[in-house]
Amino acid sequence: MASPSSTTAYGIWKLRQQRNAKMGSNWPTVAPPTVTASYLVIAGGGGGGASRGGGGGAGGYRNSYASETSGRNSSTETPLALNTGTAYTVTVGAGGGGGTNNGTGSNGSNSVISGTGITTVTSLGGGAGSSDDVDANDGGSGGGSGGGSQGAAYGGDGTAGQGFDGGNAATGNLNNPGTGGGGAGENGENISSTYDAGTGGDGLYSQITGSNTIRAGGGGGSASGGGITPGGSGGGGRGDNDQNDAHNGTANTGGGGGGVGNASATGKSGGSGIVIIRMGQQATSTTGSPTESTSGGDYIYTFTGSGSITP
């Protein structure tokens, strides 16, 4: 017997379950009706490093909408089959803090959809950018390395299906600039022999909300005494020698924070993540105050903070 698939069918199913409990019916038990839900889950971006710091990596990017690309140019994931009447937990990851006093930043926090009957969807926080001569952190997308004045410094690794790697710095760079943080759509820029720091990797576009929007860009690296270095498209913060001219990753894009060149300054923070759920019926209830919108007959719930959704 097929499971019901509409809100009305769910009401009938629930009454039937209650009757069975009271009357001891031998009717066969069926699963609750389900609704197909596409998602975009982006984690918090990594913070940028200080002292010729590398840019922070973008938060992990997982997408199951239509045939769109998921992170690291991977295939679209499979949408979720959510049980009607069941609450599912949504966690939106915060961006990681920037490095201080010649230090590496902090990784961003994970974003997650979890609950009964589904495989948990977890996007990993972006890897932090590092300081001069220090390897950067792995993450959803990898952080960019600091400059390599004494030896080669390596960017962090991104995660399969989520994001790209941070940039690498070769030994003995002129002015020892930092490299770019990885983005959902490309690697952070390497540095070999230049005064210019590495730009952040670009993010990816999605139309899950009905509007084509790019998110999850990596942060730009920095050079001591150097100028502004762009972050990747999609919320990556720009890097600069002066922390007042560098930028945080953009909130609710998972963008990486910009690196800062000055050793006594503080790298910039990564941007917070976002979770978007799109399905063919209106939710019964939500917590955490997501924004509800519609497109093409579907209901879209955009979480910029943690909460829950009950189909």
What would you say this structure looks like, in words?
It contains one helix and 13 strands, in the order αβββββββββββββ. The chain has 311 residues and is mainly beta.
Q: What is the tally of helical segments?
A: 1
Give the radius of gyration.
22 Å
Coarse morphology:
elongated
Number of distinct beta strands: 13
Amount of beta strand:
15-25%
| Main sheet specs | 6 strands, antiparallel
The oligomerization state is single chain
Sequence stretches where pLDDT stays below 50 over 5 or more residues: 1-6
The overall average pLDDT, rounded, is 91
C-alpha termini separation: 22 Å
Helix/sheet category: mainly beta
DSSP helix fraction? under 10%
What are the secondary-structure elements, in order, as H or E?
Answer: HEEEEEEEEEEEEE
Short account of what is shown:
With 311 residues, this protein is mostly beta strands. The chain has one helix and 13 strands; from the N terminus they run αβββββββββββββ. The strands form three sheets. Strands 1, 2, 3, 9, 11 and 12 form a six-stranded antiparallel beta sheet that branches.
Which structural traits does this protein have?
13 strands; single chain; 5% helix; 5-stranded antiparallel sheet; 311 residues; disordered N terminus; elongated; 6-stranded antiparallel sheet; mainly beta
Topology:
Elements: H1 7-23, E1 34-42, E2 61-63, E3 80-83, E4 88-91, E5 111-114, E6 121-123, E7 204-206, E8 213-215, E9 274-279, E10 285-287, E11 291-295, E12 298-303, E13 307-310
Antiparallel strand pairs: 1-2, 1-3, 1-9, 4-5, 4-13, 5-6, 7-8, 9-12, 10-13, 11-12
